[in-house]
Amino acid sequence: MDIRLTDTIVCYDAQGMMAAPRVSWMLRAFGAKNVFVLDGTLKKWVREQLPTIQNSEADLIRTRATQPEQGAFDFKLDPSMVESYQSIRGKPLIFDNRPAKLYSRGHIRYSVNLPYTAVLNDGCFKSEEELDAIF
User: Fold this and answer.
1) Domain ranges for the chain
2) Is 0.85 topped by the overall pTM?
């Protein structure tokens, strides 16, 4: 895929907002600095008639005019971005963003269910004031 640590990366979901935030967090946890989540879904993007392209699998292999600098692909986990069970045990604010039905099937002890849909309006993140009221 030729993703480099210095690239600007925008993550989005086809619908909903469950995978894009997770992917963006994972990329940041491994050292990418310029990672963003599209506020809205691909569905909304298309509905607003913003530009899209359709790629064949062969088109997805990106080529660049420049060779990568040394270390451009040195993705390493930043240990400050993860916690062990022992370090979070008993803390009151561990959020599980899965839908309530999935949360009820099993979850981390002490976690609180806050479905990802609770922070969205029509597929976009709620306003800062609305989010403040939730948290």
Assistant:
1) 1-61, 86-135
2) no
